[in-house]
Amino acid sequence: MNQSLQQGFLRSALTKEGHLMTNESFFTWMNKRKASVTVNIDRVAFDQLGQWHFDAKTSNLVHESGKFFAIEGIRVSTNWGHVPSWSQPIINQSEIGFLGIIARKFDGVLHFLMQAKIEPGNINFVQLSPTLQATKSNYTRVHKGNPPNYLDYFLKENRARHTVLLDQLQSEQGARFLRKRNRNIIIEVNEDVPLLEDFCWLTLGQIHHLLGFDNVINMDTRTVISGIPFGDFSRDLIDFYNSIQPSLAPNLEFESGMLMSAIETENHLHSIETIISWFTELKSMYELQVESIGLSEVQDWNITDRHIEQKDGKYFRVIGVRAEIANREVRAWTQPLVESVQEGIIAFIVKKINGVYHFVVQAKLEAGNLDILEMAPTVQCLTGNYRKGYNEYEPAFLDYVLARQEDPKVVKYSTFQSEEGGRFYQEQNRNIIIEADDSFDEDLPDNYIWMTLNQLKTFIKYNNYLNIQARSLISAIKFI
Amino acid sequence: MNQSLQQGFLRSALTKEGHLMTNESFFTWMNKRKASVTVNIDRVAFDQLGQWHFDAKTSNLVHESGKFFAIEGIRVSTNWGHVPSWSQPIINQSEIGFLGIIARKFDGVLHFLMQAKIEPGNINFVQLSPTLQATKSNYTRVHKGNPPNYLDYFLKENRARHTVLLDQLQSEQGARFLRKRNRNIIIEVNEDVPLLEDFCWLTLGQIHHLLGFDNVINMDTRTVISGIPFGDFSRDLIDFYNSIQPSLAPNLEFESGMLMSAIETENHLHSIETIISWFTELKSMYELQVESIGLSEVQDWNITDRHIEQKDGKYFRVIGVRAEIANREVRAWTQPLVESVQEGIIAFIVKKINGVYHFVVQAKLEAGNLDILEMAPTVQCLTGNYRKGYNEYEPAFLDYVLARQEDPKVVKYSTFQSEEGGRFYQEQNRNIIIEADDSFDEDLPDNYIWMTLNQLKTFIKYNNYLNIQARSLISAIKFI
After folding, report:
1. In chain B, what residues touch A2 (CB-CB under 8 Å)?
2. What is the 3-state secondary structure (H, E, C) of chain B?
3. How close A277 gets to chain B, by Cα (Å)?
4. Is the dihedral of CA B148, B152, B156, B159 positive or negative?
5. Chain A residues near any Cβ of chain B (below 8 Å)
6. How far apart (Å, rounded) are the C-alpha atoms in residues B459 and B453?
7. What are the tens digits of pLDDT across the range A266-317?
8. What is the pLDDT of residues B193-224, one digit of tens each?
9. How far apart are CA A170 and CA A221, in angstroms?
């Protein structure tokens, strides 16, 4: 990519106030959008799910069209971790959907067209989504509703008029989805774009600002912006730029350090090739075999009239909801949703090494992964399950994070962020970034490695590397 | 990777004569190796396969240990190409094996430790393989034979003493293997390495030289060396180096042009990001669903006492062989092999654009692909099947290549190279590189794109991009 595009992203990230929507007016606007529609989300029994039913042969929970998604079973065996085999329900949605953002320059600064979107599972009902968020069933209009707004800009036949700034296939939650991926795409449009009433233009700096609040920016927005690159620079060039700019205020030291970590290509502890070798080693060592089975064959899970649930109430359950949302293309519908039964935490531990912030990255196996392992945050787990003494083991670094999660000196970021409200019912996880002190051991366990932010962004670019939890945290890193 | 490692590879590639084994003595040595062992490969009926049998329930052809590999069935459906669904036999070998080469500097030049290895399916019986070529069953000694030579150098506990130069997971043939990958690894050893009698040290330039002959360098060697990088340089820097070096002889114009294409990071027709976007678009559009079925459920294929074969004799057949090889860790064994029933061709069309050689790269779907599509040569097909008039369609650019394949002015490379002799019986494909003339249309069909060699090497580095046929051709490109 030519550096001018990356500089365009960086300039937008450093622009904290919007030219079209101020930070002050944003929440007023958001609340007005929310007030303008009627929202009713009711839990219903599975036999009230209308076009959804349990397949007579497999017991899978499917839509009558065969489209959208299905709740199926898988049988898993692996030599990773502490549990060699299990079966579980999983969401199967093999189609690749669009998560698309339209960008446009106003006064020379890239703004992103964001949507106040209501999803049945959303906490707060409304969160800020990409311009276009559409499954293939959705945009090919299986449900016979209106086509999604702004779809035309993303269709192949029209895209030549615009500039593609980013276009990647990225994974969804591997513990809940079977090899699900979406197309994360940002296009720059150089013509007037009509502004519909649920939409607003924000700079990347504004989106970062809103990521400082709980449950405002939805998961789909977070994954798309996580892949945004800010350039590749040598330390010499960065030092030169720094020397001709006013020095940054001391309280911005972490933020400016993160910017350096995002753009510097030198002074990393490990080369990209060494990291690839580390990942190759682990993928060669660990096996993941996943067999599709009927939901009725899943062991230790029960299907009741309202729930598909683990017999001890662990992990998650599948529920049915009836949704009425007045500003959607279909005003009322029913669908299954996945409800987490426990709180979760995702955390990166970071530390300055060689003068550059490095992240502790974990190689993590999840049953729905396309390729055995993905790169995950330092800690990613359901905290309820893994509290000390509750299980026979606990994840590395969990104690470290939990012990420091209220310490303002080391907690550099901490919010609750939601999973995607079209599939998950009011699920939020604590997103946290903690800066380790000097005594933190730089030697890591085998399936952990140090990476700079620039290296993480490089792996995002080549797809199939970072999991959605890692990307969610990365999306929240701001520079000023 | 630091540039000095890449320069080490380049220096070895430019060293045409070995310090330890001359080109002149190589074939004498190779023939002596061949003469020193007894080789007998006999076709046998399946009921003579000893530890292999057809599973009572699935009819899959399996080893009694459950290890090694199995011949199974798959049912495929896709919206790519002209055939929406089919079933076929496929090799299932889910373990990731080692394809490992030990490298060592002699007089400052990297040499690679190559093995004269006999495989039951090899044309010429003996071909030059990596130092270590071992499945996990193999090196964990399921067959209770001796451990493979030089295995110790590659084991995790010893590897810290050496330098990893390359370490990637790369795919095997997607039409024959179900999501099979191997670990392609090169390690540099800085201590004396005992030289066993079936082994020799060669420079990369010598290996390139031997790739000018038919069926000398085996598939495993080709895939490992295809990923070797030679650096990333700007045009300015290249021009500077060229200005201080003696000008290259005119007959080396193609070779020096290929070197420029391998190392130059500018003047490409498309950026890496544009190529990723092109690939993302295609992966979003095309679906591939693969279901494992029993071999007995595969339609239009028959199992006889000696063959698993397509009813019209198309594509390939599975046969049984009894092998006796005296220098192997097990001296006699039986196994299934896949025999192609037709000749095949793999071809890259290249053209200088913006002063840099670009390759016509195809996005190709094969049933065993891990991720729907891989980047393939311009033409890759069984030629028998696709001769004009024989089928309802024919692959793009096939006519172009066939019409020029005997023209020495445009054919820059042409040999027969073998598929892996441990799984494929005497299968060879024509490997050909053709330089297009000025009139060749730079506008390509949707699923083709122009890339430089530097870009192809970049995608190899990040794994899961180039298929084995593309890598095979790339391995043969020499610079002087």
Report:
1. 271
2. CCHHHHHHHHHHHCCCCCCCCCHHHHHHHHHHHHHCCCEEEEEECHHHCCCEEECCCCCCEEECCCCCCEEEEEEEEECCCCCCEEEEEEEECCCCEEEEEEEEEECCEEEEEEEEEECCCCCCCEEEECCEEECHHHHCCCCCCCCCCCHHHHCHHHHCCCEEEEEEEEECCCCCECCCEEEEEEEECCCCCCCCCCEEEECHHHHHHHCCCCCCECHHHHHHHHCCCCCCECHHHHHHHHHHCCCCCHHHHHHHHHHHHHHECCCCCCCHHHHHHHHHHHHHHCCEEEEEECHHHCCCEEECCCCEEECCCCCEEEEEEEEEECCCCCCEEEEEEEEECCCEEEEEEEEEECCEEEEEEEEEECCCCCCCEEEECCEEEEHHHHCCCCCCCCCCCHHHHHHHCCCCCCEEEEEEEECCCCCECCCEEEEEEEECCCCCCCCCCCCEEEEEHHHHHHHHHCCCCECHHHHHHHHCCCCC
3. 5
4. negative
5. 1-2, 94-96, 156, 164, 166-169, 183, 185, 271-274, 276-277, 280-281, 283-284, 287, 289, 370-371, 461-464
6. 10
7. 999 999 999 999 999 999 999 999 999 999 999 999 999 999 999 999 899 9
8. 999 999 999 999 999 999 999 999 999 999 99
9. 12
By Cβ distance, the residue of A2, A96, A156 closest to B283 is A96
Architecture per CATH, domain B3-39+95-226, reads as Alpha-Beta Complex (3.90)
- Angle, in degrees to the nearest 10, between helices A253-263 and A453-461: 40
- Specify the pLDDT at position A391: 56
Q: Three-class SS of residue A113?
A: strand
Q: Which residue of B has its CA nearest to A292?
A: B291
Q: What ipTM score was computed for the predicted complex, to two decimals?
A: 0.93
Q: Tokens at residue A132, please?
A: 């276009």
Percent of chain A with pLDDT over 90: 79
Are the Cβ atoms of B271 and A1 closer than 8 angstroms? yes
Given the structure tokens 């007045």, which residue do they identify?
Answer: A326
B185 vs A280: CB contact, 8 Å cut-off? yes
Per CATH, B3-39+95-226 and B236-287+342-475 having the same topology is answered: yes
- Phi and psi at residue B318, to the nearest 5°: -100, 130
Q: What is the rounded CA–CA span in Å between residue A368 and residue A378?
A: 20
pLDDT (0 to 100) of residue A42? 95
> Would you place residue B290 in the very low, low, confident or very high pLDDT band (cuts 50, 70, 90)?
very high
Q: Are A225 and A204 in contact (CB under 8 A)?
A: yes
The first and second tokens of residue A119, run together, are: 């999803």
Query: HEC states along B157-185?
Result: HHHCCCEEEEEEEEECCCCCECCCEEEEE
Whole-angstrom Cα distance, residue A168 to residue A181?
10
Q: Which long-range contacts (CB under 8 A, 24 or more apart) does A61-68 make?
A: A61/A295, A61/A308, A61/A318, A61/A336, A65/A137, A65/A142, A67/A95, A67/A137, A67/A142, A68/A93, A68/A135, A68/A137, A68/A142, A68/A335
> Angle of helix B453-461 relative to helix B468-475, nearest 10 degrees?
130
Q: Which residues of B touch A232 (CB under 8 A)?
A: none
Q: Are the beta carbons of A281 and B371 separated by less than 8 Å?
A: no
User: Residue A146 carries which side chain, given as an amino acid letter?
Assistant: N
Q: How far is CA B212 from CA A213, B215, B220, B414, B415, in A?
A: 63, 9, 16, 8, 7
Residues of chain B contacting residue A464, judged by C-beta atoms under 8 Å apart: 371, 464
Checking if the pLDDT of A363 tops 70, the result is yes
Query: What are the boundaries of each domain within chain B?
Result: 3-39+95-226, 236-287+342-475
Here the tokens at position A450 are: 């140090």
**In CATH, what number does A236-287+342-475 get?**
3.90.79.40
Report the pLDDT averaged over residues B352-380. 97
Tokens of A24: 């002050």
